[in-house]
TrEMBL record:
Protein name: GpW
Origin: domain of life: Bacteria
Length: 73
C-alpha cells in the first residue's frame, strides 16, 4: 500500500521532531517502532522521505546545480 502525500508529510514532521529532541527510537503512525543507530541514519531516512514527498508533489529532485560567481564589484 502506497502512502499518501499527507501521510508522508506527517511521518517526516514526526521524524524531524524526534531527531531534534535527540530521540533515536521512533514510533510511526502505524505503531511500528524503528530504532536508528545514528543521526546519519536518521538523516538518510529524512532524505528518502523528502524524495518521496517531492515525487508525489510533482517536484522532481534537481539533477544539476548551477553556480554563479564573480570577482566582486
Amino acid at each position: 500500500m502506497a502512502l499518501t502525500l499527507d501521510q508522508l508529510t506527517k511521518s517526516r514532521d514526526a521524524l524531524i521532531a524526534a531527531r531534534s529532541d535527540g530521540v533515536r527510537r521512533f514510533r510511526d503512525q502505524n505503531g511500528e517502532e524503528v530504532e536508528f543507530k545514528s543521526d546519519a541514519e536518521m538523516a538518510r531516512a529524512l532524505a528518502a522521505l523528502d524524495r518521496e514527498i517531492a515525487t508525489l508533489a510533482g517536484r522532481p529532485a534537481p539533477t544539476a546545480l548551477h553556480f554563479t560567481t564573480s570577482k566582486g564589484t
